Amino acid sequence: MMNRRAIAQGLTKTLNASVDEVLELVSTNQNSSSSALKIGITGAPGVGKSSMIARLATYRANRENPLSILAIDPSSPLSGGSLLGDRIRMGDLVDNPDIYIRSLPSRSSNDGLCNNIPALIKLLEEAEFSEIILETVGVGQAEYAIRNQVDIVILVMQPGSGDTIQSMKAGVVEMADILVVNKDDMAGADIIYAELGEIAARGGRLEGWYPKVVRMCARDNKGIDKLSLAIDEAVEWQAKNRDPEKINAQRKRYQLQSLLERRIDELLNEADEYLLSDTVSECYLHIAESI
Ligand SMILES: Nc1nc2c(ncn2[C@@H]2O[C@H](COP(=O)(O)OP(=O)(O)O)[C@@H](O)[C@H]2O)c(=O)[nH]1
Ligand SMILES: [Mg+2]
Known about the structure:
Elements: H1 4-15, H2 19-26, E1 37-43, H3 49-60, E2 67-72, H4 90-94, E3 99-104, H5 117-126, E4 131-137, H6 141-147, E5 152-157, H7 162-167, H8 170-174, E6 178-181, H9 189-201, E7 212-215, H10 224-241, H11 244-270, H12 272-277, H13 280-290
Helix pairs in contact: 1-5, 3-10
The protein binds guanosine-5'-diphosphate and magnesium ion (MG).
The site of guanosine-5'-diphosphate has 19 residues, from helix 3.
């Protein structure tokens, strides 16, 4: 079905593309209205995101619904690390013809994500995946960045992180569409589940949507059906309540902003020479003209 080799090569090329190269890559098919469902899964290291994704992907992927996973993990660049939760056999996913999985390094990016995410997503959409799952480690700016790339944001937590919820910036919890309590087998799951329920009742990032709270155990493969259902419900709600043109414009804005920031970085690095002699205004004009 899918040409894994071609996809892998395309992703590598896109990952390392300069600003100019990205502009080239995204200049085609401007108006292709791909409808891949994009799901962002975020949360602190160790809460079980990878384990959960492995279960979720296996549950949702089939021939009509091929699925790809991009794991953006600062701790495990390219070669793996804990790409999949250590209890889940790698073979379960890798041998599944309906799932494509790739780990991406986040080192060089300026927002804790990874450069060129929109172009990477576009490539996977053109490879005709129906669903794309992005795993990111929840660290500040990455949360903001992910929200602009995906349709559904899932925040994963585990019992015993009650203090963390209190101290977490309200926005981090509230920007999620689905809140997951993983490791339901551990003590304290009831407490965090109740706390998240209260937060969810205040409403989510999208007006009129109240985040679903799901408890599950990725280790024992329990609760995945509920999580999958919550995703379907969120998708259904969004289809009725969101304006696709507005979302498209927001995504373009984000992509433009990150490309411009990188371009400015490139130009600032080249500016050393005239930084010594020119005034700030002159330098500014020089850079503005070179963009
Ligand atoms: N007890 C328990 N451990 C789990 C569960 N899900 C994942 N883990 C373990 O938590 C650790 C971190 O999992 P991982 O998926 O790599 O977390 P990530 O860093 O969020 O991607 C691993 O040792 C998993 O086996 C669960 O439901 N219950
Ligand atoms: Mg992980």
